[in-house]
Design goal:
By secondary structure, this protein is mostly beta strands. It has helices spanning about 15-25, 45-50, 65-75, 335-345, and strands at about 85-90, 90-95, 100, 115-125, 130-135, 135-145, 150, 155-160, 165-170, 175-180, 185-195, 205-210, 215-220, 220-230, 230, 235, 245-250, 255-260, 265-275, 275-280, 285, 290-295, 300-305, 310-315, 325, 330. Among the domains are: about 75-110 and about 180-320, Jelly Rolls (Sandwich); about 325-360, no CATH class.
Length: about 350
């Protein structure tokens, strides 16, 4: 996605013709086999990765049963993760007539290594995200409702519908469009995942996963679609170059979940629908459109104490611990690399050879 707010990153930083012309061009834009994460360094983390425990879904009315469940929950993780930051993603206009709710990537949370941006988008024809470039990271588009069509300058074209996922590695460079493929409102989540310095200039690639092919599991009132990573002993086939877990949980009223997360990873929750208690059983409930940044620990506990289903995405990733320099849709490690990316896009070289003579048919 290339959004209107990103266009400010292309303001000319010098009087050079390259930057002036490139800024003018960009202003006309209306708007990757699975490798498991590396083994944990401690036996405690190893137990976390292999112990996928779910405590019983309903609470007994007796105080002794409640105490037993609470004790079992407390024993699930040696270092439970709690919510250390809570952000409400408010609607804002983006792209060509689209609306997004941005959590990661805004002023209060510029990034959460290795994650660069998270948008919940809502788009209706003729709005969308016309032709725009990317370099240096991956985009993961997960459709919640409706369908989107993708085209790029290498000839790739496809449509993803409700529940489908496109995992795109931009690498050294891609120019593409993302536009609604159906009438009505199209909704989804788009996550940007950073690439390490050694991977930023790899060839672009795609992994498109239809909803029927996404790994799923269910137990005691909790359902999960496993886009990446492992839950309840079920693993996704998606390859994550930057080690990542991405799961879509739906919890029925009265259920609870205890999901391990690799201890060295950063993680967050984005609530899609409903209301839940995260981290500590006595914590205040969080509602839809909130992003919850999780503190350190080996797992997350969640309780649905409401009378309605709770749906949320749980995302975690191994930090890269590298400098992040972002200029709109280009994410590199140094300012010199950003300047090179802009020149490559302008001149049509080093991965952008087809950019000057291509436009989508959307």
């Amino acid at each position: 996605m290339m959004t209107r707010s990103m266009m400010k990153f292309f303001s000319p930083s010098s009087s050079s013709a390259i930057y002036t012309t490139l800024s003018s061009r960009l202003a006309r834009i209306n708007a990757t086999r699975h490798t498991p994460p590396p083994p944990p360094k401690s036996s405690r983390a190893a137990r976390s990765l292999t112990s996928f425990l779910l405590i019983r879904a309903t609470m007994s009315s007796s105080s002794s049963s409640s105490d037993a469940v609470a004790a079992a929950a407390a024993a699930t993780f040696e270092k439970p993760r709690t919510v250390v930051k809570k952000l409400l993603a408010e609607s804002q206009p983006e792209g060509d007539g689209a609306t997004v709710r941005r959590s990661i990537g805004r002023y209060e949370l510029r990034n959460l290594d290795p994650f660069l941006m998270l948008d919940e988008f809502s788009v209706s024809k003729p709005a969308g995200f016309p032709d725009h470039p990317h370099r240096g990271f991956e985009t993961v588009t997960y459709m919640l409702e409706g369908a989107f069509t993708h085209q790029d300058f290498a000839g790739h074209k496809g449509t993803i519908g409700t529940g489908d996922v496109q995992w795109m590695t931009a690498g050294r460079g891609i120019v593409h469009s993302e536009m609604p493929a159906a009438d009505g409102v199209q909704k989804g989540l788009q996550l940007w995942i950073n690439l390490s310095s050694k991977d930023k200039m790899i060839e672009p690639r795609y992994q498109e996963l239809m909803s029927k092919d996404i790994s799923c599991a269910e137990k005691d009132g909790v359902e999960v679609k496993i886009i990446a990573g492992e839950a309840f002993g079920v693993r996704s086939p998606v390859y994550t170059r930057t080690p990542t877990m991405y799961m879509d949980f739906t919890m029925q009223p009265g259920s609870q979940l205890h999901q391990p997360i690799p201890e060295a990873w950063n993680a967050f929750v984005y609530i899609i629908d409903g209301e839940g208690v995260f981290g500590r059983e006595k914590a205040s409930p969080a509602t839809a459109h909130h992003c919850l940044v999780l503190g350190p620990g080996d797992g997350l506990s969640v309780w649905n104490k409401s009378g309605e289903p709770l749906r949320f995405a749980l995302v975690g990733g191994q930090p890269l611990n590298e400098p992040v320099v972002q200029h709109g849709p280009f994410v590199m490690n140094t300012h010199a690399e950003i300047q090179q990316a802009m020149e490559d896009y302008y001149y049509g070289r080093n991965g952008f050879e087809k950019a000057r003579h291509w436009s989508s048919t959307a």
